[in-house]
Amino acid sequence: MASCDPAAPQCVFFRKVVRQTMIVLEFELERDHVELNQLLKLAGLCDSGGAGKALVASGAVSVDGATELRKTCKIRAGQTVQLDDVTIRVIDPSH
Fold first, then answer.
1. Which of 39, 22, 20 is nearest to 31 (CA)?
2. How far apart are CA 95 and CA 84, in angstroms?
3. How many CB atoms lie within 10 A of CB 40?
4. Which pLDDT does position 90 carry in this prediction?
5. What value, to the nearest 5°, has the Cα angle with vertex 76 and ends 57 and 63?
6. What CATH class has 23-91?
7. 92 three-class SS
8. Nearest to 55 by CA among 83, 14, 95, 91
9. Are 25 and 87 spatial neighbours (Cβ–Cβ below 8 Å)?
10. Can you say how many angstroms the Cα of residue 77 is from the centroid of all Cα atoms in its chain?
11. CA dihedral angle for residue 52, residue 56, residue 62, residue 66, rounded to 10 degrees
């Protein structure tokens, strides 16, 4: 394997630095649960409940770290929902 002198003009070194910003939202429940597709809509991550269903069906949404495919899965206080770089923490308004 040939070595490359960093001072030589033909040598180019690349370093990729990736910075990822995580967005964390807190969602206060008004009832005992919210359906997953509706939560995505209410959090502003999609335009409609139907679009939320499509996101869930695509496998892009996880609940408590596991991929969730049930579009109207009941989300309760204490659970965490993730879509791309957005995390939604569902909290009980009484706390």
1. 39
2. 27
3. 29
4. 94
5. 40
6. alpha beta
7. coil
8. 83
9. yes
10. 17
11. 160
What is the per-residue pLDDT for 27? 92
Quick one: tokens of 33?
A: 């649960």
Per-residue pLDDT of the chain (95 residues; tens, 9 = 90+): 455 555 555 545 555 555 567 889 999 998 999 999 999 999 999 999 999 999 999 999 999 999 999 999 999 999 999 999 999 999 987 76
3-state DSSP assignment of residue 7: coil
Residue 23 CA to residue 11 CA, distance in Å, equals 39
Domain boundaries defined on the chain: 23-91
> Residue holding tokens 């959090």?
43
Length, in residues, of the chain: 95
Q: Please state, in angstroms and rounded to a whole number, the distance separating the CA atoms of residues 81 and 66.
A: 9
Tracing tokens 């791309």 back to the chain, one arrives at 84
- pTM of this structure: 0.76
Token pair, residue 59, equals: 């496998």
